[in-house]
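Hey,

The postdoc asked me to send both predictions to you directly instead of through the lab channel. I've kept everything plain text so nothing gets mangled by the mail client. Protein one:
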Amino acid sequence: MMSESQSKNDRLINRAKQVPAVRGAVVHPCDESSLSSVVQAAANGLLIPVLVGPAQRIKAVAREHDLDIGSFELIDVAHSEAAAAKAVQLIHEGKAELLIKGSLHTDELMRAVTASATGLRTARRISHVFIMDVPTYPETLFIADAAINIAPDLDAKRDIVQNTIDLFVQVGLGTPRVAILSAVETVTTKIPSTIEAAALCKMAERGQITGGVLDGPLAFDNAIDPQAAETKGIRSAVAGRAQILIVPDLEAGNMLAKNLTFLLKADAAGLVLGARVPIVLTSRADSVRTRLASCAAAVLHADARRRASNLLPT
C-alpha cells in the first residue's frame, strides 16, 4: 500500500510523465549516483539526457555499475569547469531546456550559470527551493530560499516569492498559500524580518507579487498547525495550512529543511529558479525517488515555459 509520503512525490513524477520528455544537459555525471539518476529519469520518460563531461570517465562509471547510456548523447570535455561552461552554451544554442548537476561542486556550476557575459541570468534574482515531502504534513511544502541567497533584502525576497509561486503553479499544484516566516506573528521594529513580511503581503495586494495568497509575518507553528493559529487568534487562508514557507534568511531555511529531513525523514527535492532554465541540484545522499521528484519538477517547469513561449505573439 502506498503511503501518503510516497504518494506526494509519485503524483509529481506521474504528472511529469504526461508531458513530453525534456532535453536536459547533465553536467559532469562522473559518479554512480548522478549517472544512475539520469538513467532512471530517462527510463521513466522524463528526460532526454545530454551527458557533458570526460567521456572515458563517464563510460567507465556506466560499465562499473551496469548502466546503459548507449542511447544518450555524450559530449566529451576535459573537466568539470569545462562541462559547466559547455552545458550553459547548449542552453544558449537551444539544445537543452534544463540543467542537471552531476558530480561537481555546486559553486562550479553556479559560476557558469551566473557569469555576466555568458551565463543564464534573467531580470529575476536566482533562488533555490526545496520541495519537501514531509510524512506528517498533508501538503507538499516548498521552502525558499535555503541554499543560495544568504541574507536577501526586500527586493530579493520579492523575486524569491515569485519564483517559488510560479513553480508551484507550473507543477500543477494550484494557487499556493504562502507563509512569510519570522520568529513571531506580529510586526515589530525589533525583528526586521517581520517588517519585510508585512511589506511582501502589501506588495501582493498591489499586484507586485502574483499567483499566490500571502500572509505574514507568521511563526512556523502558526503557519503549519491550525490549532496553533487558532490559539493565537490568527484567521487567514494561509495560517495553519501553508504550502509555501518563505524563510527570513538562508541560515533559518537551511536549518528548517534539515530538521524536516533528519528528524521527520522528509524527502527534499530541489531546484534553482530564476535563470533562463530550471536547474536540478541533487545530493549524493538523495534517494532515487527524491532525484526523480527534482527532475519531474524541472520537467514540468520547462514544459510550462515552453507552452507559454508558444503562446507569445511572433
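Protein two:
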Amino acid sequence: MATSQLSERERLVLGAVIETYVQTAEPAASRTIAKRFGLGLSAATIRNTMSDLEEKGFLYHPHTSAGRIPTDQAYRMYVDALTRLPAVSLDEAHQIREELAGPRNAVDQVLARAAQVLGVLTQELGMAVGPSLDAAVLERLELLAVSSDRLLLVMTLQSGAVRTIFVEVPSHMAAEAVVQVSVVLNERLAGLSLKEIRATLSERLRDATPSPESTELLNIFVQEADELFEVPATGVLLSSAQLLAGQPEFASAERLQGLLEMTERRDQLREALAQRTSPGLTITIGSEHLDPKLAAFTLVTSSYRSGPLSGVIGVLGPTRMPYDKIVALVDHTSRLVQELLQ
C-alpha cells in the first residue's frame, strides 16, 4: 500500500511505533506512544489508529501483548521516506577513517577493516565483498622459474591487485624460451581485461612462433587460459557476530544457531550479495529477500568502485534496526573505501 494512502495521523503514529520498537525491542502500546511523543492525541485515539494500521498491514501484535510491532511493509515505508540521510557524527567519521587508513597493501585488508568498523558502530554484522576481477585490466606479467618444471606467473593488474599462479612446464624448457614467451604475452595481452584474455587468447597467439620451445610454452597458456587468467572471487568478509548475537532477536537457541550457521557457511550471504550489482545503496527488508532463510533480516549495502571494478560493503541485522543511522554509516563507509582504493 502506498504511503500516500495513509492519513497524516496514521503516519505520525506509525513512525512513533517504529521508533519505540527499534529502541526498546518491546511491542509498542498506545499509552507508551501517548507519553513519549507529543502527538496531541489521546491514548484511545492512538489505539484506534494502531488498529487501522494493523488492518492495512503496517502493524501486528503478538497474542501475548497488547502492543504492536511494525511489519516489513512498515519498515519499507519508513526507509522510502528517508529522503535525506542524517550526518555521520564527527566521532564516527574519525573512527571509520582511522580504522581504514592502515596499510593499504591489499584490497581485502581494507575491506576486512571496513566490515569490522561497521560491525562495531552499528552493533550489527558488518560485511564486505571484494571486487570481481573479470573486468580488471592486465598491466604487465612476469614469468619466473622456480624449479626445473615450474614457472611462477605474476600478473599485475591496473587496479593494483597482483595475481600469482604456478604453471607446470616440461623440464627441458630453456630460459630463453621463457623470456621470449614473456615478451610475446606482454605485447599481445597487456591492456586487455582478464575476461577478454580468456576469450581471445588462442586467436591472439595464433601467429606467435618465436621458436619451437616457445611455441610449446605458448600452447600451455592457450590450453590452460581459463585457469591461468581467472581470479577466484573474494569470499564474504564478516565482522564478529558476537555483537549481533547479543540482540533480543537471537535470545532463543534456534535463532542463534541459525545466525551462527549463516556466518560459518556464508553461501547464503554470498548469493544475496552477488545480486547487488547496481550502484548506490540497496536495502532489502525481511520477506523481500529471495532466500526465505533471510526473511528475519534486513541487509543494507552500498556499492563502491575502483576503476572498472566494483564490490559491496554493508550490514546485516534483524528487521528491527535504526535504519537512518545504519544507512548513513554504510553510505559514508562505502564512499571512504572507494576513495582509499582509488
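Summary for protein two, as requested: Residues 134-228 form a domain with the Enolase-like; domain 1 fold (CATH 3.30.390.60).

Thanks,
C.
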